[in-house]
Give the backbone structure.
Amino acid sequence: MRHFLTLKDYSKKEILQIIKLGFKIKKRLKKGKQKPYLKKQTLAMIFEKSSTRTRMSFEIGMYQLGGHAVFLSSNDSQLGRGEPMKDTARVISRMADMVMIRTFSQESLEEFAKYATVPVINGLTDLYHPVQLLADYMTMVEYGKSKNPVVAYVGDGNNMTHSWMWMAAKLGFELRIASPKGYEADGVVIHETLTEAKKSGAKITFFHDPAEAVKDADVVTTDTWISMGQEEEKEQRIKDFEGFIVDEAMMKLAKDDAIFLHCLPAYRGYEVSENVLEGKQSVIFDEAENRLHAQKGLMVWLDRQR
Ligand code: CP
Ligand code: NVA
């Protein structure tokens, strides 16, 4: 049995298998020939943070695969009243066939997975957002950006950055990250992904000037400056991220046919301008839709590993 807690635990071959399965399932759905791969199975979804895309894609995805999803939030479950992750994990494992969790620390996700006897999926932690990267890479494939791409990530060194770093390190592509001073990626993740990059041939480089990172890139991406849980730092962050908006001038530095990705939700006028978000290089809604297909691929893949 496998969990999906971070891309670090996955080989290039496995990541590509999951994505391939996502494409197959997407094609079947579009033709109206969806197969009930997970008939009568159940997915428990635990949310300790807000969500639109993650909840929709997992819940609808599970239904389309012939199963059922159950939504639990910390506000209205016993988790919010202090029931430990390790107890919750053992209870839910007795009932559900799979679990998806969105929580704060990667450690509490790992604690849950340690005690769970069914596959556990990371639906976002402060450290990683690996399911988003499955959809992002799927979108790159669809737009012809998977052959030796140069990806530029502009912004906060956060869960999205770390997941991009692992994706690049595993698949072997070039990733350039530009963050303001003091908002760089986590040191341990930098060390581990650079070690992996040596094996895969990936190139991961770091900048403080976004223009340097974006120059001639095939894919430009960013994320909010204020992640969930950082609301109190909002004013300071807005000051510190000055000059890091992905606007038309910045997109002009990338290749003419570069695509723009954003995991969403996006904050117009902060990390990205209205014109870029709504412009012709932006493929953000294809990317959001691919959450559904990629995660269905993931759930079917995990089910096959038991
Ligand atoms: N991108 C993403 O995970 O969106 P939600 O927070 O809406 O789930
Ligand atoms: N970095 C963001 C991603 C939201 C999908 C956050 O953690 O809030």
Remarks:
- The CA atoms of residues 1 and 304 lie 9 Å apart.
- Strands lie at 42-47, 68-73, 98-102, 120-122, 150-154, 174-178, 203-207, 219-222, 259-262.
- DSSP finds twelve helices and nine strands in the chain.
